[in-house]
Amino acid sequence: MGLNRHMIREEAFQVLFALQSDPEADIQTIYEAIPHHDEKQIPTYLLTLVNGVRDHQEQLDEQINKLLANGWTIRRLAKADLVILRLALFEIQYVENVPTVVAINEALELTKTFSSDKSRKFINGALGKFEEQVNLEK
């Protein structure tokens, strides 16, 4: 059975979190270590998310910094929250067939699984702020 996009996002989170924890880690080993990754071939969407976040990480981090309250920096964020924000912002900006509301909702689902209720509220607020900024620019 193939993976749905929610499952792929969970796997992307796990890969990116592992790389955040150990940037020198072998990515192929990380892909193979994902518990429910039972496919012979890595799903295209998983590669899109992981490679996209990695390729745009500097820009995504700049955007995240702008969303933080005064006195806060990316370094103060929990690693899980940072990875979730990067994934959501990447999907919002670079994946055409994912509506903003879906990317935000999926980020909140990831937060339920991999972070805390307090973080879910923070991520919802940060992504809502980003969405408002994008709408103002249109």
Automatic annotation (TrEMBL):
Mind telling me which Gene3D superfamilies this protein's record contains? NusB-like (1.10.940.10)
Q: Name one GO molecular function term.
A: RNA binding
| One cellular component term from this protein's GO annotations in UniProt | cytosol
Has UniProt tagged this entry with the keyword RNA-binding? yes
Q: Name one Pfam family in it.
A: NusB
Q: In what residue span(s) does the NusB/RsmB/TIM44 domain sit?
A: 8-131
Sorted UniProt keywords: RNA-binding, Transcription, Transcription antitermination, Transcription regulation
The GO biological-process annotations, alphabetized, read as: DNA-templated transcription termination; transcription antitermination
Protein role:
Involved in transcription antitermination. Required for transcription of ribosomal RNA (rRNA) genes. Binds specifically to the boxA antiterminator sequence of the ribosomal RNA (rrn) operons.
Give the family from UniProt. Answer: Belongs to the NusB family.
The record's annotation in HAMAP family points to:
NusB
What PANTHER family does the annotation carry?
A: ANTITERMINATION NUSB DOMAIN-CONTAINING PROTEIN, N UTILIZATION SUBSTANCE PROTEIN B-RELATED
Name the UniProt record assigns to this protein: Transcription antitermination protein NusB
